[in-house]
Amino acid sequence: MTYPKPSFAAATAVAPAAPHPPKPSLLPELERRAKNAAAVVIPPLLTLLVVLALWQALVGDSYTGLPSPKQVWLESKDLILHPFYDNGGVDKGLFWHVFTSLKRVGIGFSISAVCGILLGVFVGSNRWAHRGLDPIFQVLRTVPPLAWLPISLAAFHQAQPSALFVIFITAIWPIIINTAVGVRNIPSDYVNVARVLRLSPVEYFFKILLPATTPYIFTGLRIGIGMSWLAIVASEMLLGGVGIGFFIWDQYNASRIADIIVALAWVGMTGFFLDRLVALLGHFVSRGNAVS
């Protein structure tokens, strides 16, 4: 009878389980983001406080001429704290006046963006169109927005379409010119690749031309939206009705300078918001290539 030999092979050592890597703490990341936010927010806030302090010190509590920040607060406290009231007619809070102006800018600027991009592509891709139209665009873009208002009133006979036309005609020139520059600056390698691949005009537009010109287009759109906001405020002063421009003019006629200063703050913040909105959209569409 045989018995199996016992095996004395060395037992395989079992490696201890590797400790899990420690989870990264969120505290340093939150601290870093807080420092970045503070570096962006605190300097303009301090500058604003210094300006307000100087303004208050220079003007004082005089009730003639420009009101001091303290007087602006005392005289326009209701306008600042209640921007959403609506008593009908033109007796509305600043939010509704700005909202009405924004709707006009949205319509007029959208039309100018579509027409401007298409015209810019045409002018940039056609040498003869560029030679014939570009000098005219360069002249027309220097015409002030309010100079178009009499022509628009004569053509449309109504305030609303006249305001939309002024926005359209003011915003379209930088969009056309920047789009045309972008089309002319498409790298020749891209064009050669399109020829080798025999892309159709539609494929060339969406796969080559549009991605290559997106940073230029959004540069024109940012300039255009800023000019649209300037044009609507100026034109509403003359056209009347609900709108931030008419509100400023109406308060001037009523000698309420404090309300005008509050309205100007709304105009500035709204213009800044529109600019950042278009810049953010361009950043996403161009995947970071557009200037933000």
TrEMBL record:
Q: Which Pfam families match?
A: BPD_transp_1
UniProt-annotated location(s) = Cell inner membrane; Cell membrane
* UniProt topology in membrane: Multi-pass membrane protein
Q: Would you kindly state one Gene Ontology biological process term found in this protein's UniProt entry? A: alkanesulfonate transmembrane transport
Principal cellular location given in the protein's record:
membrane
Which Gene Ontology MF annotations are present? nitrate transmembrane transporter activity
Instruction: List the Gene3D superfamilies.
Output: MetI-like (1.10.3720.10)
Which SUPFAM superfamilies does this one have?
Answer: MetI-like
Per the database record, which ranges form the ABC transmembrane type-1 domain? 98-282
Which UniProt keywords are present, listed alphabetically? Answer: Cell inner membrane, Cell membrane, Ion transport, Membrane, Transmembrane, Transmembrane helix, Transport
Q: Which InterPro entries match?
A: MetI-like, MetI-like_sf, NtrB
Q: Which residues cross the membrane?
A: 37-58, 105-124, 136-156, 162-183, 204-223, 229-249, 261-285
Q: Does the keyword section mention Ion transport?
A: yes
User: An example Gene Ontology cellular component term from the record?
Assistant: plasma membrane
Family statement: Belongs to the binding-protein-dependent transport system permease family.
**PANTHER family, alphabetized:** ALKANE SULFONATE ABC TRANSPORTER-RELATED, MEMBRANE SUBUNIT, NITRATE IMPORT PERMEASE PROTEIN NRTB
| Function of the molecule | Probably part of an ABC transporter complex. Probably responsible for the translocation of the substrate across the membrane.
NCBIfam families recorded: ntrB
UniProt name for this protein: Nitrate ABC transporter, inner membrane subunit
